[in-house]
Amino acid sequence: MIIEGTPFVNTQETCIVCHVGSSDDDNPMVRHHIRYYEPETIAWVHSKCHQRIHDPENPITALIQFEPAEKDRFDSEKKVLDDDDIID
User: Fold this and answer.
1) Which residues contact 29 (CB under 8 A, 6 or more apart)?
2) Which spans in 19-64 are helix H?
3) Which phi and psi angles does 61 have, rounded to 5°?
4) Is the pTM above the cut of 0.70?
């Protein structure tokens, strides 16, 4: 289910990996970028499912649609935006 008007492909109520809705302090829901640009696409997943997505030996490649350079660029742009919010 794509949430219209947002970059999210699912709600925070159900993990896109395991399809379970419950979360707790040991396994909270986190945002996972499927894609950083054109268009930005984010999924809600459990923390432990997020580790499964990025497992070096068996990643869930369908949920990784970006190159490492895109993540670096996104993080760099986000830092610039965050720094602009600082009032001296």
Assistant:
1) 12, 15, 23, 44, 45, 46, 47
2) 47-53
3) -65, -25
4) yes
